[in-house]
Amino acid sequence: MTIFRTDTGMQAFERAWADGDQYVTRVNRGALDVERHTEYLNKVYRVGFALLDIFEQSGNTVMVFERRAEAVGPQRPMTARS
Length: 82
Hints:
82 residues, alpha+beta, Alpha-Beta Plaits, 3-stranded antiparallel β-sheet, 2 helices, 3 strands, 27% helix, 29% strand
């Protein structure tokens, strides 16, 4: 099931992990800054999610993240703050 989260920043991924969600969808309004986007992707990966799809809709960038299979299990992955 795809869950659209309105939480800010990394909260969406922390809550999705706690809720057992498989997918998180995020919307970036306007242009992407490549360096900031790369940093964001790495933070998301460290909390157990990976970019599944990215597309443009109505001038916004829509990103779909999926829980990483190797991150599923009894041990929660390192948080972005670590």
